């Protein structure tokens, strides 16, 4: 009866992004190493789309890099955010 007054909870975009990253990294670890070229562009597009919901940025404002070591792989994401306008 009063369900219309309840505010719907927004999707947990941070958790979704984290889950996707974990899946992609697990896939990368199990593959021969050629997967990096396959999923990094898709990952970059997903990250840009998620950030665009809150901040106006372009595709070239996000840099995604993968570094592989013997025991660890790291994913580096650099985002060039626009300057905040002061009133």
From TrEMBL:
- List the InterPro entries hit by this protein, alphabetically: MinE, MinE_sf
Tell me if Cell division is a UniProt keyword of this record.
yes
Q: Which UniProt keywords apply?
A: Cell cycle, Cell division
Task: Give the superkingdom in one word.
Answer: Bacteria
Q: Which SUPFAM superfamilies match?
A: Cell division protein MinE topological specificity domain
Task: State the Gene Ontology BP annotations.
Answer: cell division; regulation of division septum assembly
Task performed by this protein: Prevents the cell division inhibition by proteins MinC and MinD at internal division sites while permitting inhibition at polar sites. This ensures cell division at the proper site by restricting the formation of a division septum at the midpoint of the long axis of the cell.
Q: Which HAMAP family match?
A: MinE
Q: Which family does it belong to?
A: Belongs to the MinE family.
Please give the name of this protein: Cell division topological specificity factor
